[in-house]
Amino acid sequence: MEKVYHIAQHCAIKNQAVYKNGICIYEDEESETIKDFAKGVYKNLELKYPKFYKMDELCKLSFLASEVLLKNNEIEIDEETALVLANKASSLDTDRKHQKSITDKENYFPSPAVFVYTLPNIALGEISIKNKLKSENAFFISESFDADFILKYAKMLIDSEKATQVICGWADLDTDKYDVFLMQLTSENGKKLTTQEITNIYNNDYGRVSRRA
Amino acid sequence: MAELVEELKVKIIDQLSLEDIEVSDIGNDDPLFGDGLALDSIDALELIVLLEKEYGIKLTDPKQGKEIFQSVQIMADYITEHRTK
Amino acid sequence: MKPVYLVSDTILSPLGFSSEENIKKVRDNVSGIQLIDDKKLHKEPFYGAKIEASLLEKESENKKLTSYSKLEQMMILSIQQLLDATTSLNINEVGIVISTTKGNIDSLEIELHSEKAYLSNLSNTIKTHFGLKNLPVIISNACISGGLAVAVAKRMIQSEMYKDVLVIGGDLLSEFTLSGFFSFQAVSNAPCKPFSKFRTGVSLGEAVAALWLSDRDEINKTKIQITGEASANDANHISGPSRTGEGLYISITKALKEAKITSESIDYISAHGTATPFNDEMEAIAFNRASLQKVPMNSLKGYYGHTLGASALIETIVARHSLLNNELFASKGFDELGVSQEVNVLTENKKTTLHRILNTASGFGGCNVALILEKVNS
């Protein structure tokens, strides 16, 4: 019998605001840097996780989206919940930082704490560590969010019993632009999911959704 | 010496992104690893870079770090003796 | 699930520009690692495995590829080699998976916001060059990228996205990566020595490899099938390997389960073996937990250095040839065992009948992958 899939939860972080299931739960028009914005979200979520401050901005945003996604969630995740993320700019934001530290030979001090983040899949590692997910991980790179491929790949993981459910989506950061969209995909009760539905949710102009006071 | 100890604390907090920690939270003899500040292996490597960048001390053997990074006081003593800038 | 076969392959590395040349060099226990004195790469001489520039230039001039970057030239050459060797492959109907950690990262040296540095630029270049309908899929998952790409290709075939998938893996020896590994105090002061008591770290290398996977069973008489694969995260630390080998152990267990075999059926392990103190120790622990400590094992890092996005793909390809030729290769650089648990490191080449091989990789971010290849005679 063909399984049905559904999105249990979704979370988006864009334009200095955080949305859960389409509803704005946090916004901050004051912060001038992504670092400050991310710190504001962290404080707002009342997290106690000092490792957060050591992360690069791509990991911070991905991590925060996963925290929002999984907070008070109806369907609990387990050790076999896979993580599948994609983006366009890979870890280029941090790559440029590392490159700057080695360009001037008179002032050549590459930092291990920066270098370790010059791989996009570190974001998967950070989420895995926090949630103890000893599961399938994969980080893909594409021009834009490819809902069709991500959905197909996530279904493959569930169908082949490599995962019970999948947290998947898009986490892109490039200089001062970012766009994060995560969803919890399950095969439990719910209607059959199509690529179009995911694309619609992703493209949803959250700005028009009524904001919580 | 007291000045160097304070300066080191500021630099450690900054370099290791210990945002929720204040200078006054770090005791001179508190262990940096293990129970104390709970630093990890990347932090240890980062402290090696700090020694070279700020004080011109190049550790050739990463194992040396274990001895030197026991506490801020021990670090300050080592720097005083070996600094080249 | 339908069977997926490894049909043909090529390796472009310091050891040669074809699988045959590479296998011959490995069989002769020749290493590509040398002392490199190039200030553009690192301020002091270091041990690494670098492709002879003049060799690549000659190949690229012949094929009119000189307008492309070095990595693009190598990737295009590798795909072209696979296409030239067969008439049954229609490039427009295959899926392509590119595995790389850093792509054209050397372009950042010239321009910090270089377009070339975007990995998607690489897939666009390949698409345009070959006039493909579909954009290649890119996987960038640290040091397991090449192995994970093989697993992903298998899954794409089994879920009927494609009948044939080409996996192309590659990374360059760059100042970018070298400086990072040096800052981690993880570069060996001699050609790397996986699993040795005297190991002090990695030697980095560069290479591109390409592997054709297919569900068609009529192509080769002796078939090499990928019967199991799995990936798992340690959920422990972003750079330090797990002290219990957790993710690697889980990957191996799940891959064995999918292949419907137990550890006794494995004839050889192609390990990751980067030669850093912690990595090799972690692997030894994981292999023991999986009862694989008696199985002949090697690391190819002593031949190629660590080629990042290409490494696990090269290891899969060499493993395929091991199965085809019933031969195993000495683990280059190994002398005295330097891990706390028993492992059976190959100290010399060996001719022996092989049926099933385990290939593993582990990387930053706590990721691990295990692949099982099996020979099916018809």
Give a brief rundown of this model.
The complex is a heterotrimer of chains A (213), B (85) and C (378). Chain A has helices at residues 34-44, 57-70, 92-103, 112-115, 122-131, 147-159, 195-203, and strands at 6-14, 17-20, 23-27, 81-87, 137-141, 165-174, 177-186. By secondary structure, chain A is α/β, with parallel strands linked by helices.
Describe the secondary structure blueprint for this structure:
The complex is a heterotrimer of chains A (213), B (85) and C (378).
Chain A: E1 6-14, E2 17-20, E3 23-27, H1 34-44, H2 57-70, E4 81-87, H3 92-103, H4 112-115, H5 122-131, E5 137-141, H6 147-159, E6 165-174, E7 177-186, H7 195-203
Parallel strand pairs in A: 4-5, 4-6
Antiparallel strand pairs in A: 1-2, 1-7, 2-3, 6-7
Chain B: H1 2-15, H2 41-55, H3 64-68, H4 72-82
Helix pairs in contact in B: 1-4
Chain C: E1 5-12, H1 19-27, E2 33-36, E3 46-49, H2 53-62, H3 70-84, E4 95-99, H4 119-130, E5 137-139, H5 145-158, E6 164-171, H6 175-183, E7 204-205, E8 207-214, E9 222-233, H7 246-258, E10 268-271, H8 277-289, E11 296-299, H9 301-304, H10 311-325, E12 327-328, E13 344-345, E14 350-351, E15 356-363, E16 367-377
Parallel strand pairs in C: 3-7, 4-5, 4-6, 10-11, 10-15, 11-13
Antiparallel strand pairs in C: 1-8, 1-9, 2-3, 6-8, 9-16, 12-14, 15-16
Walk me through this protein's architecture.
- The complex is a heterotrimer of chains A (213), B (85) and C (378).
- With 213 residues, chain A is of the alpha/beta class.
- Chain A has a single domain (6-205), classed as Peroxisomal Thiolase, Chain A, domain 1 (3-Layer(aba) Sandwich), CATH 3.40.47.
- Chain A has helices spanning 34-44, 57-70, 92-103, 112-115, 122-131, 147-159, 195-203, and strands at 6-14, 17-20, 23-27, 81-87, 137-141, 165-174, 177-186.
- In chain A, strands 3-2-1-7-6-4-5 form a seven-stranded mixed sheet, with helices on both faces.
- In chain A, strand 2 and strand 3 form a beta hairpin.
- Chain A is globular, with a radius of gyration of 17 Å.
- Mean pLDDT of chain A is 91; it is low at 207-213.
- Chain B has 85 residues and is mainly α.
- Chain B has four helices and no strands.
- The two termini of chain B are 15 Å apart.
- By secondary structure, chain C is an alpha/beta fold.
- Chain C contains ten helices and 16 strands.
- Chain C has helices at residues 19-27, 53-62, 70-84, 119-130, 145-158, 175-183, 246-258, 277-289, 301-304, 311-325; strands at residues 5-12, 33-36, 46-49, 95-99, 137-139, 164-171, 204-205, 207-214, 222-233, 268-271, 296-299, 327-328, 344-345, 350-351, 356-363, 367-377.
- In chain C, helix 5 (145-158) crosses helix 10.
- The longest helix of chain C is centred in the first third of the chain and has 15 residues, at 70-84.
- The model of chain C has no long low-confidence stretch (mean pLDDT 97).
- The chains are: A alpha/beta (213), B mainly alpha (85), C alpha/beta (378).
- Chains in contact: A-B, A-C, B-C.
- Chains A and C meet through helix 3, helix 5, strand 5 and helix 6 of A and helix 4, strand 5, helix 5, helix 6 and strand 9 of C.
- Strand 5 (137-141) of chain A pairs antiparallel with strand 5 of chain C.
